[in-house]
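Let us work through a complete example step by step.
Step 1: write down the sequence.
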Amino acid sequence: MTATPTAGTRVLVLNSGSSSVKYQLIDMADGSRAAAGLVERIGERTGRVVHNPPAGGGPRRITEGPVADHAAALRAAAGELERDGLGLDSPELAAVGHRVVHGGTRFTGPTLITDEVLAAIGELVPLAPLHNPANIAGIEVARALRPDLPQVAVFDTAFHTTLPEYAARYAIDRAVADRYGIRRYGFHGTSHAYVSRAAAELLGRPVEETNTVVLHLGNGASASAVAGGVCVETSMGLTPLEGLVMGTRSGDVDPAVVLHLARAGGMDADGIDDLLNRRSGLVGLCGDNDMREIGRRIGEGDEAARLAFDVYVHRLRKYVGAYCAVLGRVDAVVFTAGVGENSPAVREAALRGLDAFGIEVDPLLNSVRAKAARLVSTPSSRTAVAVVPTDEELEIARQTYALAGPR
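Step 2: predict the structure and record it as tokens.
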């Protein structure tokens, strides 16, 4: 059956991971969440479904029990929505939007999912072996449940496909790079797209006339330089390992470190992969990847925590300076995601000493905790400093609805 546009205003957003499925039902009439939830521990002995019903629909519901696979997970999510009168058979459901991590160079925007598109996503599995298979599983189950409904893939890499070739290319043998798809792809693109546009709105400027440096700082962290709404540089590369210091990932290292570990340390590829992706970054430097705990330890005089913090913010400052050079004119440096939105200490330290770039943080504004987008720069700062909460699910829903919603 061919998927056709409906008259509904709701989009179901699915984020299928290797052992979990996050879902949100968003009403595009006003951007509100009709319901949301998480199915986790898929394939384990005891799974769990956490469902947040619509406002006025009662308290959060938590159910534990086996969840065999992604098909069972999506059926569980559909059952919870059905209990709220929001089942997948609702005429109000216009489309399903799927987060897909890697779209390579082929997928440059939201894409209506067909058999051919699904096959192409499968061909990209070698570039995202932990993520794309889970994304595919979610798509296949959702299509089986509602074959008549438009299903849209929104790619983490798509926002970064505008990188100039000189920014996307690595300086290695071109034939080898082309044969194995080695180039800078970038990730967190859905967040960078949403936040750069929201920052322009906060400044009261057209996005086409606004240059921003966006710092997405969660357990994974990435930076992007956005010129007039178009990404021209980003810190993550072939994989999400490159760039900033992260919770458990190293970010930038000399490539010869890998060779040295293999030759002198006798480590194999899997061991080095585990070291750089899971035992490095903040956790490698001090044993913690929670910035709140690191801050507490610094307050107690812990030198390892202090060093981890200093390495983290030094890398941030270096990237901000580099991206100021790339853009030439920067209207705002924007912090988002868990650390970016909630750590005044990181924001202040990362931008300290950048007065020459016209960047000045107001200590009082920066210390205020709030959920709304806001400026934390001084009135005299030539470059605004902003905190903008990210909303990747809403961005996925918007892109999905724009492509597959009613005409």
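Step 3: interpret the result. The chain has a mean pLDDT of 94.
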